[in-house]
Amino acid sequence: MSLVLDYDAVKKIIPHRFPFLLIDKVTITEVDKTAVGIKCVSGNEPFFTGHFPEKAIMPGVLIVEAMAQVSCVLFLSKPTNQGKLAFFMGMEEIKFRKPVVPGDRLELKVEILKMRDKFGKAKGEAFVDGQIVTEATFSFAIVDKEGAST
Q1: Is 51 labeled as catalytic in the residue annotation?
Q2: Domain contains 149
Q3: What are the tens digits of pLDDT across the range 4-19?
Q4: Range of the domain at 66
Q5: What is the CATH classification number for the domain harbouring 58?
Q6: Within 13 Å, how many C-alpha atoms sit on residue 48's CB side?
Q7: Three-class DSSP labels, the chain
């Protein structure tokens, strides 16, 4: 059984806000294991002003960030993790295969590869119209808000 979280529900789980909330909806397909996020890419995104003014392309690092946000929703939606933060710890095996442009609908699939205590590793894949556009493996830590330092 899957759990669908709309934009408002996502905002109750993760702290990201405009202009850095990069997902519109998340479906948790397997608790603690897999989720699929959706990002409808609009020409009004603030990053398109400078990337690039004459040929709008979504920055690849923001696609990876969107995948990470999906994994944040997956873990921070658990009752034991509510009110906590998830921090990026590392990224590897990143591949950008096709550009993402205004009008695209990103489907962000995330699978948790490892989770130990408060540290985890995930694999993310981003698709547009069924074709893979970006993939990455990333690690993260789940921390208490009070003990979080930047």
Answers
A1: yes
A2: no
A3: 999 999 999 999 999 9
A4: 3-144
A5: 3.10.129.10
A6: 15
A7: CCEEECHHHHHHHCCCCCCCCCCCEEEEEECCCEEEEEEECCCCCHHHHCCCCCCCCCCHHHHHHHHHHHHHHHHHCCHHHCCEEEEEEEEEEEEECCCCCCCCEEEEEEEEEEEECCEEEEEEEEEECCEEEEEEEEEEEEEECCCCCC
Q: Which of 16, 25, 51, 123 is catalytic?
A: 51
Q: CB-side exposure of 17: number of CA atoms within 13 Å?
A: 2
- Which pTM value belongs to this model? 0.93
Q: Is the pLDDT of residue 107 over 70?
A: yes
